[in-house]
Amino acid sequence: MTAQNAAVVMDKEDRSREGKYLTFSLCNEEYGIGILKVKEIIGMMAITPVPQTPHFVKGVVNLRGKVIPVIDLRLKFGMEESEYNERTCIIVVETSGASSSYAMMGLVVDSVSEVVNIKEEDIEDSPAFGTRLSTEYILGMAKSGDSVKILLDIDKVLTAQEIQALEKTA
Amino acid sequence: MKGRKLSLTQKLMFIGGAIVLAVVVAIGGVSIWKSMQSLIGLSKTNSQQQSEQMAAMVRMVMEEEVGKAKAIAAMGPVVQAARQVAAQGASGAHDAIAQANEALRAIIGVAGEQYEGIFLSDASGTLFGGVLHDGNTKLYPGVQIKDRAYFKRAKEAGRPVIGQVIVSKISKEPVAVISVPLKNEKGQFLGIVGVTLKVGFLAETVSQTKVGTAGYAYMTDKEGTIIAHPDKKLILKLNLHKVPGLEPLAAAMDSGKSGVVEYRFRGADKISGYAPVGINGWMVGATQTKSEFLGPVRAMAWQVGAVSVVAVLLTLLAFFVFSRNMTRPIMVATEGLSDGADQVAEASTQVSSASQQLAEGASEQAASLEETSSALEEMASMTRQNADNAQQADSIVKASSGDISEAQRSMQALTQSMQEISQASTETQKIIKTIDEIAFQTNLLALNAAVEAARAGEAGTGFAVVADEVRNLAMRSAEAARNTAELIEATVKKVSGGESILKDANQAFQKVAEGASKIGELVSEIAAASGEQAEGISQVNRAVSEMDQVLQRNASTTEETASAAEELNAQAQQMRQYVRALADLVGLKAHGRKGEKRKAASGPSTERDVPVPSLKAPSKSKKGNGARPPAVSQKEPAQVSPEELIPFDDDFSEF
């Protein structure tokens, strides 16, 4: 079921990127994640670091009895690290990794903005920066007013190995 | 001027000689005069006494002769003859007459030369007998003598009479007849016995008498005719009354008293003692020529004269030597005085000019002092103002220090309230934070709800709306909270800024307070200093006024000095004249010597060659405007005397 649903979603997504997105900010840039990928949004809580993990993996948290890995998107995206504050949130997403099952993981973002409905015509493909640069984790560029929101394909943000590693961690 | 040219030596000699001469002459004259007087007195007394003695002698002689005549008249033959002639006439008494003549001849022979003859007359005055001294008896008989005065007087008086001196008819010699009346027993006048006495013997007797050394005696009758005199030619020829110049003598002789008379005869002063004989108004005189008995006096006068001349000569010599000795140092002193006078004149001129400059300086000083005084006045007033201002400032500062402390207190209160505000803000911030957290949580919840609603699909659409609304609310509250937080933060910031400002202000106030107290001290010090300064300035002012007084005194003193110098100069001039006078006096050739000396001593002293002003010069120069001797004015024409500075009336007289 889950795989089917995911496929449906994938199809839908393939067909139309129109829908609701949860927007958040990272380094003053707005990013969006498809709302259906979002499981829950929680405030920052104590992260237990886990050794032997990549540097962008901050550790794990206990979310109502469930241990989920938390990665810092800033670090993941190669941005400079910043301290966490009260605005810093952890977005719990369900990833459909290569290993099959939906894995839950927390993404540390600077702040959570809102849930917006973005229409198809407002979404453009990510520009081709060159062959070497991988832009596959970018779903598209959503124009909102004068600014641009980068819509992320969260499943591709983390490679399968990573997800696996994370799953192992979890 | 000639008298002035006499040197001291000459003067001294002149005066000394004069004094000595006067003294000698006075003493000699007095002694001569005294001795003359005493000689004259002596001679007078002598003359009188001698005349008196001679008068007495003559009277005695004459009385003796009268006695002799009486004796002749009493002789017997004479009486007999007279009686016979009276009784019988001449012819009848021839024998008696012859006897009488014999007797008379005998008498004459005894009596000698002094009788010319003795004759006898009858009562009628006709001679009947007589003998001449040579024994001749022929001449007398028949001669008539009744008109003769001696006959008449003898007949009338009945006693012996001495007749006047007459010239004898026989011998042509002066004779005097002594007639003795012949009387009979009854006292009847019978005639006279006449004894013709040659007066010549009297004259000899008298003239033999030497009066004094060169005097002689003489005799006059009552008519003033000379009857006895050493010069026989004068006898009976000279009448005193008839000789001009002998009036005093004649008058004296007429007086019939004894005395002394002075007279002048034949160019010679004489004195004559006189005395009455007592017979017929005869007078005996003893005369002396003054020049004769004053001979010793003359000799003495000559001696005195000689002594005088010697004394005068000695005096002159002594004075000459003495004055020479005396004038030498005076000459030296005169030269020194002359130099000194010149120097004094020069010095006084210098003093005058110096005092002049001093006076000018003093006036300038006075002007600047006045300026100083006025400046000091201004300074004093400004200082007083300063002091007042400083005091005001002091009081203001003191008042402001109170204000400042009050301000400090309010500042502290303000700080406290600010702190309280800050605290409250912090608490509010916490609350706001809480609210914000709540809003955040609510937002998260709303987002989660939206996520859930989106997951729910179509069924969650309403829920999504609610969630959106909730989120909106949460956003709004967050917004509000943020706004509030910002506000609060701004407030807090402002409060903290205010606090820091307040702190600064507080510090500033503290500094201000310190500064104010310092200012107060300084101001009070300034006030005190200003007061002292004012005091000092007033003291300076007093000093300046004293200086002014001193200056005034100085100026007056300078004026006095100038006038004194002036005086000194005049004195020097006068001294120069005195020196010149002295030089003249001691016979110093002042100019010549001076000139030589000057040339020898120093070259360019021009004033020396200027002639020394004459004695009239000072009065002239005093009358003139300069009151300055020509020498000085020539030497230093720049010199200005105070009189020249002040215009005189003389200056205007030129217009």
TrEMBL record, chain A:
SUPFAM superfamilies: CheW-like (SSF50341). Residues 18-163 form the CheW-like domain. It is found in: Cytoplasm. Keywords: Chemotaxis, Cytoplasm. GO terms for cellular component: cytosol. Its main location: cytoplasm. InterPro entries: CheW, CheW-like_dom_sf, CheW-lke_dom. GO terms for biological process: chemotaxis; signal transduction. This is Chemotaxis protein CheW. The lineage of its organism: Bacteria, Pseudomonadati, Thermodesulfobacteriota, Syntrophobacteria, Syntrophobacterales.
From TrEMBL, chain B:
InterPro entries: dCache_1 (IPR033479), MCP_chemotaxis (IPR051310), MCPsignal_dom (IPR004089), Sensor-like_sf (IPR029151). The keyword GTP-binding does not apply. It comes from the Bacteria. The keyword Membrane applies. One of its GO terms (cellular component) is plasma membrane. It holds the Pfam family MCPsignal. GO terms for biological process: chemotaxis; signal transduction. The chain crosses the membrane at residues 12-33, 300-322. Residues 646-655 have a biased composition (Acidic residues). Residues 590-655 are annotated as: Disordered. One of its GO terms (molecular function) is transmembrane signaling receptor activity. It is a multi-pass membrane protein. Keywords: Cell membrane, Chemotaxis, Membrane, Transducer, Transmembrane, Transmembrane helix. It is found in: Cell membrane. SUPFAM superfamilies: Methyl-accepting chemotaxis protein (MCP) signaling domain, Sensory domain-like. Residues 340-569 form the Methyl-accepting transducer domain. Belongs to the methyl-accepting chemotaxis (MCP) protein family. This is Methyl-accepting chemotaxis sensory transducer with Cache sensor. It comes from Desulfacinum hydrothermale DSM 13146.
